[in-house]
Specification:
Helix content is 31%, strand content 21%. The mean pLDDT is 96. Strands 2, 3, 4, 7, 8 and 9 form a 6-stranded parallel beta sheet that branches. Strands 1-12-13 form a 3-stranded antiparallel beta sheet. A 3-stranded antiparallel beta sheet has the order 10-11-14. It folds into 2 domains: 212 residues, Glycoside hydrolase/deacetylase (TIM Barrel); 36 residues, no CATH class. The longest helix has 19 residues. It is globular. Helix 1 packs parallel to helix 7 and helix 5 runs parallel beside helix 7. By secondary structure, the chain is of the alpha/beta class. It binds zinc ion (ZN). The site of zinc ion (ZN) has 5 residues, from loops. The site of zinc ion has 5 residues, from loops.
Length: 271
């Protein structure tokens, strides 16, 4: 039996996630497009700017981003690597606190303001309840990060079509999990007058059985659950201690491991 960690939920091997920063009013139109196509995004918000000219208001956050993920981006968008440690803590905890009061769930992720950070900043994050932090470094690849606290996306949305097409056509020789991760700012579509690019992208990538449409934190939680699997020495038994189902590849076929239970991997699992 050959066991591989190569499956997302539903046994799929591909996942798509979007990540949008700053919480400007153009998020309204962007969320509308995503909802129309059933694509999920994560929105990194600066709670200190709510209600300012051009920014969304506190009262609309919960309903606007329902079905997507609200995530931190600090309260007031400083360069974190140029900021005293105490202020980094305050910026993130204030942002989390304000966002959580609005959305009604723990906020557990962030993107780095200006995309900048250093090791001191990154090392603080787990103690502040932050599970992942997105950078602005494009990899051009569909791989999952080694370190979710330096989560490099596939591309900025200006390159989403070429990477979207490559993603759909990707047929790796050996099955593996592939993630297309696109980031940007909704106001860029307004500035550049190219909202139709987002529509085209969503039309191309949406409604596919072989793609898991996920928020950033759903991917982090899933990968964590995958890592928590406990195997018997002979690899015929596996316990999933998490609260969500996890899929693995067994001899090239997807097998679902129910939450909180032990699965016996035999021939009858195949299929
Ligand atoms: Zn920003």
């Amino acid at each position: 039996m050959r066991i591989q960690f190569d499956r997302f939920p539903g046994g799929r091997s591909k996942a798509l996630t979007l990540s949008y920063d700053d919480g400007r009013i153009h998020d309204r139109r962007l969320v509308g497009i995503l909802n129309e196509y059933g694509i999920k995004g994560t929105f990194h918000l600066n709670s200190g700017f709510f209600g300012r000219d051009g920014y969304i208001v506190t009262e609309e956050v919960r309903a606007l981003y329902a079905g997507h993920e609200v995530s931190a981006h600090t309260a007031t968008h400083p360069f974190l690597e140029l900021t005293p440690r105490e202020r980094v803590v305050t910026e993130l905890m204030n942002d989390r606190r304000a966002l959580e009061r609005t959305v009604g769930y723990p906020v557990r992720g962030m993107s780095y303001p200006f995309g900048t950070y250093n090791r001191d900043v990154t090392q603080l994050l787990p103690m502040l309840g932050i599970k992942y932090a997105r950078t602005t470094v494009s990899t051009g690849r569909f791989s999952l990060p080694d370190d979710f606290l330096q989560w490099h996306p596939t591309c900025h949305h200006r390159a989403m079509m070429e990477h979207g097409e490559a993603f759909l056509n990707e047929r790796p020789k050996y099955n593996r999990m592939q993630l297309l991760y696109v980031w940007g700012h909704s106001y860029e579509f307004d500035n550049n007058g190219n909202w139709e690019d987002m529509e085209t992208f969503c039309r191309l990538l949406s409604g596919r059985d072989d793609i898991w449409y996920a928020t950033n934190i759903e991917i982090v939680d899933y990968m964590e659950a995958l890592k928590r699997l406990e195997f018997s020495v002979d690899e015929t038994m596996v316990r999933n201690p998490s609260a969500i189902p996890v899929w693995i590849g067994v001899d090239g076929l997807p097998v679902e491991l129910a939450p909180g239970s032990v699965t016996h991997l035999t021939d009858e699992n195949d299929g």
